[in-house]
Structures are given as structure tokens and as C-alpha cells.
Amino acid sequence: MTTTSGPTVPTEPSDVLARFLAAVEAGDLAAVRSAYHPDAVIWHSNDGVEQSVDENMATLSLIAEHLPGMRYTNVRRRGFAGVPSNNTRP
Question: What is the span of the domain harbouring residue 56?
């Protein structure tokens, strides 16, 4: 008997982050929401604002609608075990 498994879920922090950013850039809001814990608080490094998941999803929805093709070009990964601290994407 042959069994198949579902999609591979990344567990390495750098893979999780790369997949998350790709979902944001693609406007894949379902994938973004699925990455968040329901009680997550999203903090903006540029203005210090904190958002709930719902508030952040509304923001990302507006970005996806009004800025198609938006890309992050200067990504800094810091504070995650196993994630190199650099400014480039894998």
C-alpha cells in the first residue's frame, strides 16, 4: 500500500520566514493568516505600532489591492535561532 503525505510544512526558521514573505508579496492572505497565532501581535519596526491579526490582515489586504507586485528588497532577519543575520533573501 502506498501512502502520500500532504504538502511539506517548513520547520527551519529561515524556510518559514521565506515562505511567509513570499505569501505577503503574492497577496496570499490565507497563507499569511494561517502563519499567525490567533492572539499574535504584529509590531512595525518603522513606526512602533502594534496590530492585532485582524488589523494586520486588513493592512495587508489594502497593500495587495493597491500595490500589486510589491516586493521586500531589504529584509533583515534577526533574533531567530538558525537564521543568519543578513540583509539578503535566500
Answer: 13-66
